[in-house]
């Protein structure tokens, strides 16, 4: 039996010692990633002379656990920085852990006008929900039989005809653009462009089937990039030009999430299909993009003054203190969890799955079914800010809050466990088919959904993600691979070899 020989000049004992030191170093870093955030939290709490209540102790332990688990996840295949489990955990932390940590370290800042000392120190049920959500996600992500489930998912054609991919993506982009332009036409171009951010949502009420055109543009851009890119040409000009135009137009209308989602999808496809992205470069891009998102978020308060008003706001009114507003968006999830745990069961009974059943009723257009149930995000806006809801505005909800509304603490754990296990299966499926264009494209599509999987509700998952994003993407893959679709179950789950790419 052959053995691996150490390189010349190095003994086997030397290699064993080196491996032992690496393992010890890794263990030390894991311990540090758990203890350092907890120590910072304790010091910050002590400096602001807060009482160490059970809720605050649980919060500190949850923050420490999150950073420890995040580091452990990032350490698994560290070169794969765009694996779904890694990206999801970062986003999850932004929406559940970082707002609390930021408030503790910088208590003078009013994060999103919703964070308060009362919420952090005394609402123990809300913090129990967040701890259970973290536990459910981690357990779901790490179940070993996620690989077995991935083995049973049919494989898709690993290669496409380049011309067909380009043609289909252009058709999808044009279809989405036509829907969105017709929405603006229905509202009125001048009215729409001179409306405030909240007013744009109010004007689009009842026309969601047209607004979904933005999602089709997103799918088309990702499909176009996947069709044209490879390791020899990682930055094809056509999809990048389409992305620049899409970003400029979307930012002008005050929308940020759809741009961030599309960027996540493009980066995932680039990383797994056209060459890995280096971590140092990614950190710089992430920082610049975060600053840009804050600037656009603040500038959209001047949207009703047109592009000139937004530019003037950035030039004269924006300051570095406004960068703390980076946590505004993230505070939406703690806010929703805080409010529902105060309402239920004290003032409302548990819904026992009713909101999930009503989600299917929401598929019927309001023009046909005027009395259809409200989505959880619509209901939440009416409960906590009826004046904002009356203007067409609203608040983001969360799967954590909806799980609690239906089944209490058990619902929180089960919903988050389901999300974690879904991500687990997707990660394993991609690893089984590392060179498949179809799988990488679908992986990029799911990457665009990670934000909604944190701050959405069941209605958003069914309508926006499953029916308007995942299903069209799946149909596109089936069409492009119709001549090479692999139905032989003997091939299911086997890693594929590098395909011979079509030149045209």
Average of per-residue pLDDT values: 77
**Rough outline:** globular
What distance lies between the first and last C-alpha atoms, to the nearest angstrom?
Answer: 47 Å
Helix content class: 55-70%
Summed up, the helix count is 25
Radius of gyration from the CA trace? 24 Å
Description:
This protein is 68% helix and 0% strand. It has helices spanning 12-47, 54-75, 84-96, 98-105, 117-122, 124-142, 146-151, 162-187, 189-193, 197-203, 208-211, 213-228, 237-252, 257-273, 279-299, 306-317, 326-330, 332-343, 354-361, 376-384, 386-390, 399-432, 437-447, 452-455, 458-480. Mean pLDDT is 77; it is low at 1-10, 110-121, 486-493 and 496-504. By secondary structure, it is mostly helical. The two termini are 47 Å apart. The protein contains 25 helices and no strands. Helix 2 runs parallel beside helix 6, helix 12 (213-228) packs parallel to helix 14 and helix 15 packs across helix 16.
Give the tags.
disordered N terminus; disordered C terminus; 68% helix; globular; mainly alpha; 504 residues
List the helices and strands and how they pair.
Layout: H1 12-47, H2 54-75, H3 84-96, H4 98-105, H5 117-122, H6 124-142, H7 146-151, H8 162-187, H9 189-193, H10 197-203, H11 208-211, H12 213-228, H13 237-252, H14 257-273, H15 279-299, H16 306-317, H17 326-330, H18 332-343, H19 354-361, H20 376-384, H21 386-390, H22 399-432, H23 437-447, H24 452-455, H25 458-480
